[in-house]
Amino acid sequence: MSALAHYLEDAGLPTVAISLIRLHTEKVGSPRALWVPFELGRPIGAPKDAAFQRRVITAALRLVETATAPGTIEDFPDDDPTGVDLPGWQPPFALPAGSPDDGPREDALRQEIEAIAPYYERFVAADRRTTVGLSGLAVEDCIRFVARFLAGAPLPDVPLQPTPVQVLRWAADDLKAYYFEAMLVDGLTPASRQMQTWFWDRTRAAQAIIALRKHLLASDDKRAQAIGRMNMVPGVQVARLGLN
User: Fold this and answer.
1) What's the DSSP call for residue 92?
2) 92-108 in b/e burial notation, b at 16+ Cβ within 10 A?
3) Model pTM score
4) What gap in Å lies between CA 190 and CA 51, rounded to an integer?
5) CA torsion angle for 211, 212, 214, 218 (degrees, to 10)?
6) Distances (CA, A) of 145 to 10, 88, 100, 135, 192
7) pLDDT 10s digits, 22-40
8) Which has fewest Cβ within 10 Å: 10, 26, 121, 160?
């Protein structure tokens, strides 16, 4: 976006970038930028905190008036207020009992999805939107697609455009979003770190995505390797879990 800002400025449109990685913004030389100390994916702060998000946006827009030199980067002064763990937080749902050996089997994954489905549906009803749907598949088809791919079984009859590997990436994204939205149904906004840690440590869906990452990294296809390396498991979790 910082690079695109130069083209917009040349056309006479003033721009302000919100920067999550200060070094990148410095290298590209954004005309004006507000650096924020938030995690990737949250450029204006935590979801559902409209007052805080308004402060971030107002600070960014103010730079149009106050920045006097090209390449100005101003630091936002406050951390994300939801960056602190909520003591004792747990998701509002319980996962079905089972053996860790169940792993990413399709039936085990389906049981898990069925347990959290009511909470996801309540979230969507209350929030009136969802980020699930990138793959174009129902969540049950996401499970089926991922589980059968890992098992080397014939893939279900679902759209495979542009490629099966790309569909796998989107299906994994949809599964992650499904779980995280279900976690938020009770109105509490725990630290993202809490939700991420719980998901990657406790769920069969996470086991499946980790196995999928390993499978793609071992592929001879360069595109599959890239998706496995960059799009399956967040880098923070790769390091925390000791994945190679």
Assistant:
1) S
2) bbeeeeeeeebebbbeb
3) 0.79
4) 17
5) 140
6) 46, 35, 21, 11, 27
7) 888 888 888 889 999 888 7
8) 10
